[in-house]
Amino acid sequence: MTCGVVTLLTDFGTNDPFVGVMKGVILQRSTRLTIVDVSHAIEPQQVGDAAFWLAQAFPWFPEGTVHVAVVDPGVGTLRRAVVGRAAGHLFVAPDNGLLEAVARGASGFEAREIDAERLGVRPTSRTFHGRDLFAPVGALLASGALAFDAVGPTCTLTATNHVPEPVLGGRSAAGCVVVIDRFGNLLTNLTPAAFPAGGARRVSVLGHDLAVVGTFADVPPGALAALTGSFGQLELFVRDGSAAALLGAQRGTPVGVSW
Description:
The chain has 259 residues and is of the alpha+beta class.
């Protein structure tokens, strides 16, 4: 059962009308749907960022929500369009790795390839499948006009590694930066909850050893430190500054922890 909520996550920004047009297409199918913008500020073509944030965001919505996610550098090519189902939620996205973090973290994940021709959803453009394919399918699902089992044939997602998993050792773990937020904080693929009692005793990045604190305010302005972020990941920050700028860090920068 869907609940009538549709979320949108894209790299389209808000200066152009792309997002508004997607909402119009959804409302053409049903004006009773509630549309929520998760973000349209994903950096262009950064599928990994979108995969990470989709996995963090979806559990905070009610079961039955349909999540439409479009970061699609391969739009118009032979890449598949899919609908995933996990934890009572539905996910509409290109099969380019955007659903990898959801599929990895949610038990019982299953996917179906969208049979657009059979569903009567015919893209009129090879460059705007957000409007022509993903938005209408999301609306059909959210309105109850389309069941998951009727989307198309079952499929296995294309194997990707946009959000790599950490390597855990006996007394250490090796991870990396997976997302840099707008504050310059470095969000990693390391989850302190998976460490032994007491958590990480030492965090190292680019030759720096960082203290692990509880809040941003636990260190003086300009200090570099680590904490458990709001979504449970180990996060590196500079109080009142940018860790990314200070360290010159980027996606994939190695981060180690030991205890």
